[in-house]
Each structure stands twice: as structure tokens, then as C-alpha cells.
Design brief:
alpha+beta; globular
Length: 157
């Protein structure tokens, strides 16, 4: 079950103790910290800092309860803007529904901020194709946590 639903390892219930899941291997997307540290995210982070100089941005791993989790908003906005720019450029100066469709059909493999491997397709719910193998470690943080045990892999169909 955990191999197919990694969120279950992050939300162990009262009946399942972290030690029960210790060593379980699953696949996950990049962690918030890995996305934040990705070189392709740097430009977007700097734009946000310039626009909001009074906001204190912390690395995801430095977050403490009660802190605003700005990275949770910055990550998807950076990706969405990059994807829009990619498709809008390919759709041309005077885009039509047909040129947008052609841009999506012809996008091929590409990268987005925090997502090194991406693609589009008619049966895909999103563009992300990046994943990694992770292992649940009962001693990681409070209540255990997932630890990467592989490089980021390309799951492009």
C-alpha cells in the first residue's frame, strides 16, 4: 500500500507506529527542499524577493511551525508561469486554439522550475515526470520521514 501511496507514510495513524513502516520504499516527487535548491528555481525566487523585500523567505527545511510557508506558493507559480511561457511562445504571436493545441502536442520533453523531467500528453494529469526512490526512516524528524535513496529519475512515458 505504501509503495503506491507515499502520503500514507507521511500520515501514519494512531494504530500504525513509525517503526512499523521503517524501511518501506516508495516513489515520490522531489521534496520541497530539492525543488527550492534546483538551479531553475533561483530566478523565480529572486523575482519574488525583489517584489516582496519585506517577506522573509526560508528554505523549506528551515521552516518551523507558525512560519508562513512561502515556498508552497512559489513552487507552483514558478512552474505554471514557465509552462505558460513555453506554450505561449510556441503558440505564436497571435495564438489561436489550434496553435495552443499544436504547442502542447509539440512540446516534447522539457524542464520546469523544480521539475527536471516534464512532458505533456492527452492522458496525463500534469506535466511532471520527475520522481525518486525514497525510504521511510522512523528516526527521521518527529514521527519519521522519507529519505531519498536515488537520483531524480525520468518517468516520461
Amino acid at each position: 500500500v505504501w509503495a503506491l501511496e507515499a502520503s500514507g507514510l507521511e500520515n501514519l495513524g494512531a494504530e500504525t507506529f513509525p517503526e512499523d513502516a521503517d524501511g518501506a520504499i516508495t516513489i515520490t516527487a522531489l521534496t520541497d527542499q530539492q525543488q527550492w535548491e534546483d538551479d531553475s528555481m533561483a530566478g523565480c525566487i529572486e523575482l519574488f524577493r525583489a517584489a516582496q523585500p519585506d517577506v522573509e523567505l526560508k528554505d523549506p527545511d528551515q521552516h518551523v511551525d507558525g512560519d508562513e510557508q512561502w515556498f508552497k506558493s512559489i513552487h507552483p507559480y514558478c512552474r505554471n508561469i514557465a509552462l505558460f511561457e513555453l506554450l505561449a511562445t510556441a503558440a505564436g504571436r497571435n495564438p489561436t486554439q489550434e496553435s495552443w493545441q499544436a504547442a502542447m502536442d509539440g512540446a516534447g520533453d522539457f524542464s520546469l522550475p523544480g521539475i527536471p523531467f516534464a512532458s505533456l500528453g492527452p492522458d496525463k494529469p500534469d506535466a511532471g515526470d520527475s520522481f525518486q526512490l525514497t525510504r521511510f526512516d522512523a528516526a527521521e524528524g518527529e514521527g519519521g520521514g522519507l529519505v531519498s535513496i536515488s537520483d531524480v529519475l525520468d518517468g516520461t512515458p
